[in-house]
Every structure is written in C-alpha cells, then in structure tokens.
Amino acid sequence: MDQPADLAQFRSSIDNIDAALIHILAERFRITKAVGAYKAKHGLPPADKAREAEQIERLRRLAESANLDPEFSEKFLRFIVAEVIRHHEQARS
C-alpha cells in the first residue's frame, strides 16, 4: 500500500531519530559500564540514591522546558538507571 509522501517523510525522520537514540544510549551505557568498573575497583556501591534523585529532578525540569511530560522523563530515567545498576552489580561480581 502506497503512503502519502508527507507520511513517508515523517516516518523517515522518526526512523532517523530512533537510530540516533540507539547510538546515544549505546554511548551512555559504554560510559556507565566504565563507571561500574571504577566503582567495583574502588569498593563503591552500585547505586547512588542521592545522584539518582538529583538526576530525576534535573531531567523533570528539562522535560518541562522541552514540553515533554515530566512523568515520562522520570519513568524513562528510572528504567535506564535500573539497567545501569544491574551492570554495576555485574561489574562488582
């Protein structure tokens, strides 16, 4: 089924953004894995609740200024942080 040209263009842009998000997340996790190795080497705990709280508040403010739902941004960050902590716990073992 043929798509109207404007719909195809929108979808192409979405595909480009999705690809960029994947690359950004890959880079973020590359860095946080290095942080996990550092924490393991220096006997630091995998989680830092104070840092997490600061980041959540910071991203909620950024979301509001970008007209993005702050609840969504918090859920997204919590999802990422949970994966980061899992990586840090693996590095510690």
Automatic annotation (TrEMBL):
SMART domains registered for this protein in UniProt: CM_2
Residues in Chorismate mutase domain copies: 1-92
Statement: the UniProt record of this protein carries the keyword Isomerase: yes
Name of one Pfam family that matches: CM_2
Superkingdom to which the source organism belongs: Bacteria
Listed GO biological process terms: chorismate metabolic process; salicylic acid biosynthetic process
Gene Ontology MF, one: chorismate mutase activity
Keywords (A to Z) from UniProt: Isomerase
PANTHER family hit by this protein: CHORISMATE MUTASE
Name of the protein in its database record: chorismate mutase
